[in-house]
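TA notes. Do not distribute before section.
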Amino acid sequence: MPCLNLSTNANLDGVDTSSILSELSKTVASLIGKPEAYVMVVLKGSVPMSFGGTQEPAAYGELVSIGGLSPDVNKKLSGSISAVLEAKLSVPKSRFFLKFYDTKGSNFGWNGSTF
């Protein structure tokens, strides 16, 4: 179950977050090689955030997955996710960090149990 959790200081009022969530969900599923039915995307806006000493548009994300991550996949995910944030929320690629976690199924709870 890949989970992409994104926080940004961008204001999401009036933004079509549905299209952003959909695009990110499809991207994560495709690049990790998991069914989209298991992908979760969380997008939080208007989060107080400073990057490089300024409060210009910025974002931080964490992507947790049970397998499917590798240096090559992570690079593609970073590029694709940052491109969406830049195009849809005006967050420059240079003001976005993304941390990857490859975890075991026993460390992921779902449906009242673990994977």
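Switch to the second chain here.
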Amino acid sequence: MTLTSGTAPQAAPEQPAQRATSPAAELLDADFYAFQTLLAPHEQATAARVREFMEREVRPIADDYWERAECPVHLFKPFARLGTLGSAWAETATTPLSAVARGWVGMETARVDSSFCTFIGVSGGLAMSSIGVGGSPEQRAQWLPPLAAGDLIGAFGLTEPLAGSDTAKGLRTTATRHGDTWVLNGAKRWIGNATFADVVVIWAKDTADDQVKGFLVRKGTPGFTATKIERKQSLRIVQNADIVLEDVEVAEADRLQGIDSFRDVAQVLRITRDGVSWQSLGTAWGAYDAAVRYVTEREQFGRTIGGFQLIQDKMATALANLTASLGICVRVAQLQDEGRQTDAHAALAKSFVTTRMRETVALCREACGGNGITLDTGVARPFADAEAVYTFEGTKDMNQLIVGRAITGQAAFV
């Protein structure tokens, strides 16, 4: 049996070909066109293990941790034992997974809790990808295995108080070299995991050549301060921080040797932007699951509201959004596996899927009426979390401009 509630409307009896061949990986109800069957059998089994972990370990505690704005850090290492962190890198790929399968794992995680997906994704995605893309062979061998095993937790420090969308040119954090030591000064904002991370990838401009470099700042380094951002109303489990760097000394050996400009940083963002598309899909999927369950149980006027035309219209639109978004996510991941993915491919996916996510969580909230604003119904948390996911890894506007540049050949950035 599936772990989701409700049944997607069927125009005809289900055919055997629509089901996954592996008994351990039955299709989720909202996988209307059976995209999961594109995964190899071992990938379907991996997705099933992640789904089971999220349902067993995370779902029962997610609302409570979200309400308290605390992070279940104790679940990081058990999640890492599933073997999905680092599956993209040769040093840590114990069970190779395609980009489609890696995306599916992110979707399964976000479907239960988008905050937990962010927590995992910052370390296993942004931090590990920075080292995987920009690290020397020695750095990759040193850092990737413990990060993949959950022995270390990573963070990624790019965004600044005065540099968000314009980080390519507007980065203010500086790095000045003195022999074999670099001195970092500046500030970062919205840095997930930073209050407890063992290593934070800090991006700074080299004062000698004005190019962006990457640095591995270890926990406890003098001059590094991370302060939790309070009063958030989205992704409350994620421990975002303001970082201050005051004459932070980093050895040349901890500078990412393969990063020489922001163009190199963009390679990392292209990979992780795909992950945000899958996370957006999962966030919407979680709201859909909860709404279907609610409308098939809630009674008004002597019948369940799932039998009313207006409710069915909302649910059909939500399912269409999920299906279209899943198709885009799958194809962009396939292009990544083929080595043909571009910045514009990733940007279009992020822009489209997050927009459809925002519409979908709103439709699901509406379908649940006033009860939809409570955590108990299951749509309020993804409804709120969607706002943060809609914004990070590049706003819709910035991603649209990346796509627009690909269409016209003209850059419209300020």
